[in-house]
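Record STAS domain-containing protein, 102 aa.
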Amino acid sequence: MSALSITSMIRSAGVVTVVLRGSVGRADVGALRAALGEILRVNRPATLELDLAGLLEIDPGVTGMVAVIIVDANRGTKIRIVRASVAVRRQLRLTGGEDLLG
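=>
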């Protein structure tokens, strides 16, 4: 597994894109939760896009936790996952994150 990198950028009014690169393992869950919470608190976007094009893998043991974190982070913001690989999409579907796939 390679280290998780989290980068955020404002794409347009009301839309923030968060780009994840590398891998998500058990050790990354807290950092992901904190980063999403901070981005939502500071920016309060109408839409948050999680760009997963650079995500190599999600540890199958944490995929469900990641989906729950994303849904829990919502706070009135529409959250959608974009540019996820076939393997990541499959893992999200299996763990209840299918509604987040854009």
